[in-house]
Write a structure and sequence with these properties.
Length: 182
């Protein structure tokens, strides 16, 4: 089973096993552009780079832990297991309507990426430890327990076991959808 199919199957199994969640109204009086989460924990799928499962947990109204597991690849040359975790800050909303909010977020986090590099003369297994700086927006629905996100993530990778690179700047871009359980 491919990584996207596996991610979708796992997401579907988790979503079906819980009762329906409901989005809560946002607190009033925060100002036109302030953001306060009306959800707590969500799981979903993420596509492009990386491809896999994604989760987000708001531990206070404007800060969250974001995490993911799946496959990451670079133009078909490097493919392998990818795990990350980020601390996200949601300083403001770009749009605020009765149906949705569009919060901007920025964060700091880390990743571990193990892969086989087929771009070099002799394919080689390697591991990268990276420092991530995610920048993104989340289309956060107010009336249904879903959000859709897009993020741009510059990453400074430190390689172990790679014959060409010891440090490399990588840029990931991903889109995804999450179902919120509470």
């Amino acid at each position: 089973m491919t990584a996207p199919k596996l991610a979708f199957a796992a997401f579907a199994a988790v979503a079906v096993s819980f009762t329906a969640a409901h989005a809560r109204p946002r607190p009033a009086g925060l100002g036109a552009f302030a953001f306060e989460a009306n959800k707590t924990f969500g799981l979903g799928v993420e596509l492009i780079s990386p491809v896999g499962l994604n989760g987000k947990w708001f531990f206070n109204p404007s800060q969250a832990l974001d995490f993911g597991v799946g496959d990451d690849f670079v133009i078909g040359n490097r493919a392998g297991f990818h795990v990350y975790g980020d601390l996200l800050f949601h300083p403001f909303s770009l749009a605020n309507t009765s149906a949705f909010e569009l919060p901007f977020y920025v964060g700091i986090g880390g990743r571990i990426w193990t892969f086989k590099d087929s771009a070099i003369a002799a394919p080689n297994d390697a591991t990268a430890f990276g420092v991530r700086v995610p920048l993104g927006v989340s289309f956060d629905f107010n009336t249904v327990p879903l959000d859709v996100f897009a993020q741009f993530v510059p990453t400074l990778d430190f390689f172990s076991g790679h014959p060409v690179h010891s440090v490399f700047v990588d840029i990931d871009f991903s889109i995804g959808v999450r179902y919120w359980f509470n």
